[in-house]
Amino acid sequence: MAAQPLLAVRDLEVSYGGINALNGVSLEVSEGEIVALLGANGAGKSTLLRAISGLVRWQGAIAFAGQDLRRIPAHRIAAFGLAHVPEGRGIFANLTVFENLKLATWTRRDPREVADDYERVYALFPILAQRRGQLAGLLSGGEQQMLAVGRALMSRGRLMLLDEPSMGLAPLLVKEILQILAEINVTGTTILLVEQNARQALKLANRAYLLETGTIVRSGPADELAADAGLVDAYLGRAAG
C-alpha cells in the first residue's frame, strides 16, 4: 500500500469577492520531496499556499500529516509542523535577527535542540551569525530572505512552504538560496516551492504542478516538465529561463 502523503489537497476552492482564485485544485506532497508549484503571475500560487496555512478561507479538503485542517486556525497549523515563508519574506523589521529566529520557537519545549538549531541556521547562513544583533530591517534583500528561511527552520516544521524565495535577488544569490534549500531537504525537511525561476525550480524539484488561472493544467516528474520547452515558454514565459 502506498504511503499516505504528508500533504494532500483535494478539490480546493478559494474565492475573493465572488471571483474564484482556485478552482478544484488537487495535489499531493510526500515526505522528503521537493515539489514545485509553477505558473504565471496571478495563477493562484500564493493563494494556494495561504489556504494550506489557514490564512484564507477555502472549500474542499486539506490534510497535513493525516490531520484534517478544516476549521483549524493558522497558529495551530503552524504548531502541527507546517512552516510558511511568504512572498515578501514577512520578517519583523524592528526586531533583531536573533529575535526573529526566536519567534519561531514559541511552540517548542526542547531548549537543548533549539540551541542546536540556532547553530544550524548560523552554519547555513553565516551572515546571520555575524548580524544576529542587528535589526532585521537593515539587512539586504538577500539577507532578509535567508532570515525568513532560517526562521522557518527554527520551527522544526516537517513541511516548508516557500513563496518566491528568489524574487528580487541577484542570480548568484538565487543559486545560493536554492542550493541551501536542497541541503535543507536532504536533512529531512519536505518542501513545497513556488518559484518564478521555473527552470531552476525544476532542477531542484522531484515533481511539479503547473497552475493556470486557478486550475492545475499539468503535473509530473520535474525533469519531464523541464524537457518540454514549449510548455515552459507557453505558460511561464521568458522569466523561466
Attribute tags:
four-stranded antiparallel beta sheet; Rossmann fold; six-stranded mixed beta sheet; alpha/beta
Write the layout of secondary structure elements.
Layout: E1 7-16, E2 19-29, E3 34-38, H1 45-52, E4 59-64, E5 67-68, H2 74-79, E6 82-85, H3 97-103, H4 111-124, H5 126-130, H6 141-154, E7 159-163, H7 171-186, E8 190-194, H8 198-204, E9 207-212, E10 215-221, H9 222-227, H10 229-236
Parallel strand pairs: 3-8, 3-9, 6-7, 7-8
Antiparallel strand pairs: 1-2, 1-4, 4-5, 9-10
Helix pairs in contact: 3-6, 4-6
Give a summary of the structure in a few sentences.
The protein is an alpha/beta fold and 241 residues long. It has helices at 45-52, 74-79, 97-103, 111-124, 126-130, 141-154, 171-186, 198-204, 222-227, 229-236, and strands at residues 7-16, 19-29, 34-38, 59-64, 67-68, 82-85, 159-163, 190-194, 207-212, 215-221. The chain is 38% helix and 25% strand.
Explain what this protein looks like in three dimensions.
With 241 residues, this protein is α/β, with parallel strands linked by helices. The longest helix has 16 residues, at 171-186. The protein has a six-stranded mixed sheet with strand order 6-7-8-3-9-10, with helices on both faces. It starts with 6 loop residues before the first strand and ends in a 5-residue tail after the last helix. Helices cover 38% and strands 25% of the residues. The protein has helices spanning 45-52, 74-79, 97-103, 111-124, 126-130, 141-154, 171-186, 198-204, 222-227, 229-236; strands at 7-16, 19-29, 34-38, 59-64, 67-68, 82-85, 159-163, 190-194, 207-212, 215-221. β1 (7-16) and β2 (19-29) form a beta hairpin. It has ten helices and ten strands. The chain folds into two domains: 7-81 and 157-240, 3-Layer(aba) Sandwich (Rossmann fold), CATH 3.40.50.300; 90-142, no CATH class. The mean pLDDT is 91.
